[in-house]
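User: Show me a protein chain along with its predicted structure.
Assistant: Here is one chain, sequence first, then structure tokens.
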Amino acid sequence: MPKNFNIEMMYKIKYILFACLLFAFISNIKAQDIQFTAKAKSAVLTGEKFQLVYSVNEEGEDFRLPPLADFSVLMGPSVMTSSSTQIINGKVTRSRQYTYTYILKCDKEGKYNIAPAQITIDGKKYSSNSLNVEIIKNAGAGSSQAQQNQSSSESGSFSNDDLFIKVTPNKRSIYQGEPLVLTTKIYTLIDLDNVSDIKHPDFRNFIVQDLSDASNINWSYEVVNNKQYRVGTFEQKVLYAQKTGTENIAATEIEFLIKQRVRRRSQSIFDDFFDNNYRIVKKRVKSKPIKITVKPYPSGKPSGFSGAVGQLNMKVNTSTNKVKVNDGITIKVTVSGTGNHKLMSTPKFDFPTDFDLFEPTAKNNFKNTVSGMQGTKTYEYLIIPRFPGKYTIDPLVFSYFDYKAKRFKSIKSRPINIEVEKGEGGEEYTGGTYSPSSVNREQVKFVGKDIRFIKTGKAHLKPIGTFFFGSIGFYFGYIIPLLVLLLVFILYRKRMHENANMHLVKNKKASKMAQKRLKKSSTLLKERDHEAFYDEVLKALYTYLSDKLYLPVSELNKEKVSNLIEERGVESSVKDELISILDTCEFARYSQESGATEEMDKLYKRALDNIGKLDSQIKK
């Protein structure tokens, strides 16, 4: 057999195999794109009609419904077709959807499994998913309850038993800072269309975080007072108490839009699935108030406790341990676990005096859960050494309260050793005194010409024999510099004395530093960073009060500030304005609705004006 013939046969076989593989690949892609799904309610009352819907994204044939021996098929299949077209970046995408709808009913309680349906597309059979449906006994004594509900729906007289809400706390007694979960559930015997208004209580002494809302309510059934209610979780909130004592949480009010049935002439099973025989009416329902006991922390609170509550861990990392003079070092403190991360105060290091320090920044990476905030909060500190040498930064002690163990816990980091070398300028460090070995100076050059021109301006001539020595100007020339020198010396000594008193220095600079912080908050206002804006205004006010009242920020609270500034002679109107600003910031900082930009701008101006009034009225 010729050799060329064998080569040609090999090439033909390769082409055939390639074509088969390509066809199989394309068929597999198309098979993967077919989506055939089944949907129905997971729980249904005995005798209640419900829909069984099958959806497929390709046109098919020979649709086969699985055996439904335990169900009565009241209607179906009702076949509907829908199509959509999308244009994204010039690319046109078209899709079609085919639905097969059945209306079923079951009169016997129990748990049933609906087997997969089958359909044929392009000669290939596809199966849907199976479904589990629980048929629950109707506790309304057969049809009497259904008739009663229908009668009340048609008449519009809905009672408090037809629709009500419950707000339930997961605990009745908590520690300050411990998460409290409030769950709002809806109990209804009637058809609801939507919610038109919600009135939440004023959580004044709590920080509130939302867990869920009514965007996707999962309904189930529950028997209450021998009546079968549809029950859905409307929302969940996590509260963190900021004050000890007994707290009364007011009622939650919700206004519902209800489908009210209108009497019709004909009786048809199709009417239950269309809105032609309904109108919308409103009904406002109200929950019961809740009483919560907020317990104080037990004895043994550490001195460095910053308000952290939960089950937490702490880790300290440095960007480097060996740098040159004027190079920056970043120290990261990461607090992880479950707790009230957002409410923690910034941990404080005891840095050497030879380091320049910058304001630490905080980054949040956590999510809200029923156990609290889960994730991490990272604090970053930037420090710059100015002199060479070997330094040791004392360990950081992080204290928190574990409400499950009912005691305080502390985590201690390792000491940070930093070696600082001489920089490029050739700095030297001998005998505890820093001195540069060489100083770069610009050479002084004379720019001009070697030939001077004759002065042509007006000359000032004096009579012969006139001397400056012994004149009045001569003596004043000695006396005035001596007086100026004496005055400078007195002012310098006074300045040194004042600088020695750090409290007095902070007191004098309090207003200036507060205004500087408020300028930063105005930048955050322009950037629409609501949370950071309120946080910065709050820091500005508390830092200002700390400097003016000679107290650390950690010991300040609204009640103590109110008493102290009143003792210093501050007017009651100015004091009330300050407390109002602090309340607004604390509430808005953690609220989901932080407020409009106009309101934040007004708050910024109020804070500036209040600091000015406080500065003029607080007596030293």
